[in-house]
Write a structure and sequence with these properties.
The protein folds into 4 domains: 221 residues, Histidine kinase-like ATPase, C-terminal domain (Heat Shock Protein 90), CATH 3.30.565; 137 residues, Ribosomal Protein S5, domain 2, CATH 3.30.230; 80 residues, Rossmann fold (3-Layer(aba) Sandwich); 129 residues, Four Helix Bundle (Hemerythrin (Met), subunit A) (Up-down Bundle). 34% of the residues lie in helices and 21% in strands. It has 19 helices and 22 strands. It has an 8-stranded mixed β-sheet, with helices on one face. Strands 15-14-17-16-19-18 form a 6-stranded mixed β-sheet, with helices on both faces. The chain has a 5-stranded mixed β-sheet with strand order 9-10-13-11-12, sandwiched between helices. Helix 7 crosses helix 8. About 1% of the residues have low confidence. Homodimer. Belongs to the heat shock protein 90 family. GO terms for molecular function: ATP binding; ATP hydrolysis activity; ATP-dependent protein folding chaperone; unfolded protein binding. Keywords: ATP-binding, Chaperone, Cytoplasm, Nucleotide-binding, Stress response.
Length: 625
Amino acid sequence: MAKKQFKAESKRLLEMMINSIYTQREIFLRELISNASDAIDKIYYKALTDDNLTFNKEDYYVKITADKASRTLTITDTGIGMTKEDLENNLGVIAKSGSLAFKSENEAKDGHNIIGQFGVGFYSAFMVADVVTVTSRALGSDEAFKWESEGAEGYTLTPAEKESIGTEIVLKIKENTEDDQYDEYLEEYRLRAIVKKYSDFIRYPIKMDVKTQRPKEDAENEFEEVQEEQTINSMVPIWRKNKGELTDADYENFYNEKRYGFDKPLKHIHVKADGAVVYNAILFIPENTPFDYYTKEYEKGLELYSNGVLIMDKCGDLLPDYFSFVKGMVDSEDLSLNISREMLQHDRQLTLIAKNIKNKVKGALQSMLKDERENYEKFFESFGRGLKFGVYNDYGMNKEDLQDLLLFTSSQEKKLVSLDEYVSRMPEDQKYIYYASGDSIDRIEKLPQTEMVLDKGYEILYFTDDVDEFAIKMLMKYKEKEFKSVSSGDLGIDSEADKQENEAEESDNKELFEAMGGLLAGKVKSVKASKRLKSHPVCLSTEGDVSIEMEKILKAMPNGQDIQADKVLEINTNHEVFTSLKALQGDQDKLKLYTNLLYNQALLIEGLPIADPVEFTNDICKIMV
């Protein structure tokens, strides 16, 4: 019979589909199995309305057979089959799907859903095969037909012999090349792995002849290798089971089987949504941080299924960045698939699912924080930094979602506390949420700036992550309480009497402070009497939005932003050092020496580098002589 041309604009369309649409060759098997499943579903639909047709599920399956000698891979199904016209219309017209038309006629019957909707997946077979042969006999027909093609040049359609109803697809696997090894698609282990990855939850058995060992009948402790037919897919996915049927161990086993992590998940979330969008999901909150979690190489995302068929390994659009630690899967029949199952439309359904998942994860974390505090603190130790970055990122757009999930070490009992816990136990006279920043809790506790706040009996939050202060600046306030650094120029603690006393100190020592400020011009904005120091002689405070810790972090970045905090040198006027300072007003050399020493001392307290360490040690020697 003469070869027929494909009814498409050009053979280039087929070439594009074969070479460009799919990112991995192995998905050809997923597509052919999905088509076979569709063919069985169509019989099921027919049986619902045809009293003469009974559907015994045990009679329906998909069979995979590999023959290395002939280099053929055969996929057989016991589905509805295709007539000559079906073969002509469905396989002869690229991007036309019989499944899509069938679905529109039999919408939503008894929960069975047609997977293949766009008629393109079949042609993925040409990625691995030189010749594709389809032999099919339709339900209710005595005739069978064979469709055969070598690719874009066209196809032939001839009568054939086939005893049973259904379709048989034979792929003549390509020969190996220097760059590509096609032999793998004839190997049992590889075929099983592909089925497990993409088609494990197809609702019908996927069978294959598998090599196995069994004891010899006539010899003890001896085994022989035999081939036996096995079902190699699970068929019923865990997410379609009722939650009441499942135990924590079931979820943990699923977590381990899918290799979501090597740890034990802290919590699982099983979602069955039947609202504006229908989907099932199983989500996990891990305990441990993946080794690459805080690197650019880490790829977020959930496994995405359409009716039990894996579409994407990691669909990043389903998770916001700040919840990128979540592992798991989503299965939906509502997703719009464009051309192939790998090209997902960014449509309303996907947006709705993503929004719902975000809320489910947030709710689960809030529940952990309230009822499983130990587990939540384990989680926060691993992933809390990402939540803080989520508050800071996108100009604070997500701060309302995340603020109640944050924990910080507190000066009280050195335990982690939430912002809600902090605010709930604030004394009535406390105006601000106070915090102190530093490299470690030990260093923060030694900061002179904390003295006055602690003396008032106020709690301090310790910020040790580099993102902490940036996140809080973006948050600005919590439950109408503003955040204030203990290094801030005005702590909002002073009484009227304290303010008057300080103003008097400033006035009495105005000349001395101005002289010291002149000696430190360009290094500090001013020198003034300290309201916060009790036992320490000196410290640095800041004015404006940039703190000293923020300056250090910004300077440490790869591009090294030269942003300076507006520093103020504060002097404790009740310290013995200040008495010595006052006695030096007539001696400019010694005043300069003492001023530089105090300034460098304040830098060291803050963990800032000294501009000239040699000069600093020489200045110390001058004092010692």
